[in-house]
Amino acid sequence: MKHARLIMNPVSGTDEPNPLKLPDMLAALEAEGIRADLAFTKPDESPAVIAQRVVEEGYYDMVIVGGGDGTVSEVAKGLLHAPIPLGILPIGTYNNIARTLNLPMDFLQACQVLGRGQIKSIDVGQANDEHFFLEAAGVGLDATLFPIGEEIKGGRWGRMLQAFRLAMGYQPQAMNIELDRPIGQARTHPAPTPRFLRRKIASRNEFQIKALLVVIANTPYYGAAFMVAPNAIVDDGLLTVTIYRQFSKWELVRHFWSISRGQYHYNPKIETYQVASVRVSSNSKLPVHLDGHQIGEVPVRLKVLKQALKVFLPDDDTPTYQSEDDANPPVALPVESQKQVDE
Ligand SMILES: Nc1ncnc2c1ncn2[C@@H]1O[C@H](COP(=O)(O)OP(=O)(O)OP(=O)(O)O)[C@@H](O)[C@H]1O
Asked: Of 5, 149, 190, 251, whose CB is crowded by the most CB atoms within 10 A?
């Protein structure tokens, strides 16, 4: 029998209250040979603390998190470079991380992955050598909108008008992007930048552009299941920098609408680079978010911690994500053919 600390968010997701799922969940884990001790998250305390305590005690074989992306990333922070793996039971709203890892969305099937799946290490992002992110960081319009988006998700629908106004009034901002390698090597599209998207080259690694937003992704998805970086592979030691330039607002809305439905159309106004670290700065006070939480303003240095987190993943004998009924099925990890997606 294996022992697990199960950290559950009682309020994540939109269906029945999560505590009602517990009897079935514990029985399904038991059937996989896992005995789980439960701890509920609290609204005002990061569950990273619980995960850290588990690592220090050295008693449990794994940590299992039942929740959405917010809870998963907090718990993950307590397990970085730890010897024990993280199992994910996706009972949140969007479950981007579970989607990235190809996990079944049915939490009972996800229990089977914890009993019989494989353990692999995935990358984690870090900002300013301090804060961590699993999905993506962003500078510009998305960082401006995320806090309001969270309020809307929490039921404050009246905020939609404010979000709309903010988005429509937002202007492209001048930013300085410094990559950890020459621009030509980092660029993922070999085609030269169209002339209308001229950028000012400061050095072989550094350039200045005006953009509505820059997303630095560790995984393909962020936010409301936006497939923002279909090429992002979660264990390759690289972040995908996506720069949205000279988009009209409506173009951007259209683009985000289609990537929320898994349809990624290549657009020459999107530039992508793959790097292990990048620094974004600006003369303006542009906000920065990590996984949807604002952490301050630029300048920010973002880097990848290669394979810093052990996680359970499906293998050939366990259920995986079922793509029926979903217009936005996951792009699996780590599949080399993925590299073709937006080229
Ligand atoms: N016991 C609790 N009571 C109320 N709120 C809680 C409690 N524990 C955690 N929270 C809040 O839950 C939020 C995180 O929810 P989480 O991200 O897991 O679910 P979600 O938003 O439904 O899913 P997703 O992020 O996948 O869309 C945090 O804002 C956190 O403060």
From this structure: 5
Nearest CA owner, ligand 1 atom 9: 43
Tokens 């952490």 sit on residue? 295
Q: What pLDDT, on the 0 to 100 scale, is given for residue 3?
A: 98
Instruction: Please identify, by atom number, the ligand 1 atom nearest to the C-alpha of residue 292.
Output: 25
Mean of all residue pLDDT scores within the chain: 89
- How far apart are the CA of 9 and the centre of ligand 1, in A? 6
Beta carbons of 286 and 143 less than 8 angstroms apart: yes
Round to whole Å and give the CA distance between 115 and 267. 42
Show the domains of the chain with their CATH numbers: 2-117+314-340 (3.40.50.10330), 131-306 (2.60.200.40)
Q: Is the dihedral of CA 233, 235, 238, 244 positive or negative?
A: positive
Closest residue to atom 25 of ligand 1, CA basis: 69
Q: Does the beta carbon of 221 sit less than 6 angstroms from any atom of ligand 1?
A: no
pLDDT at 336: 38
- Segments of the chain scoring below 70 in pLDDT: 189-198, 323-343
| Pocket lining: 93 vs ligand 1, CB cutoff 6 Å | yes
d(CA 12, ligand 1 centre) in Å: 5
pLDDT per position as a tens digit, 206-255: 999 999 999 999 999 999 889 899 889 999 999 999 999 888 888 888 88
* Residue 240, token pair as written in the block: 């995908």
**47, amino acid identity:** P
Q: Which DSSP state fits 186?
A: H
* DSSP H/E element including 300: strand 300-313
Amino acid in position 79: L
DSSP-derived secondary structure for 45-67: B-THHHHHHHHHH---SEEEEEE
Distance, CA of 155 to CA of 150 (rounded, Å): 9
163: tokens are 């979000």
Q: Which residues are CB-neighbours of 82 under 8 A, at least 6 positions away?
A: 51, 55, 310
Q: Which residue, judged by its Cα, is nearest atom 5 of ligand 1?
A: 43
Atom of ligand 1 lying closest to residue 44 CA: 31
> Which two structure tokens, joined as six digits, stand for 215?
């997303």
